[in-house]
Input
Amino acid sequence: TALASKVCYLTWSKLTDAEDGAINEFVLRLPVFLSALGSVVLIGLSVRRWVSDGAGLLAAALLAIHPWFIRYGIDARAYGPVVFFSLVGLWALSNALSADRFRYWALFALVQFFLMWSNMHCLWFCGSTTIVASILILTGKFPAVYWPKFGRLIASNALAAAAFLQVYSPNLFQFYRWS
Output
């Protein structure tokens, strides 16, 4: 989020010849706002695919009017795009389980990394999606040999965890001082 906000801010300051230190809040909040708009579209399309047309429209409308979503959808904070990344992760995992293509597994791993990096509490979401996907794979809910899919699930999570630990390890060493 910080990188996207920085790029938007630098682009705005170059295009408008803004003075040094000038701030445009809309530009700084734009990446989170766009991810919130993308979340509304993505939940509508995903639920439409998974359930029905009416359910997708209802899910998009309910998310769009939810007070917490509206509040967090404009905050320029790291947790702003969590809903968007969660939905992209679910979409990628759904496609990875049904189509079993490398690009969906890679996208799922990338999203898992972004979720854990943006907010440590997303570890619970990442873990729960992995557990549910493992159960779905091992119970044979998808029409393919399940050991290769299970291996790809573990590999994508291991890749996301390795990237996360590389970036976040300095913070992990300081945990005992945070209390």
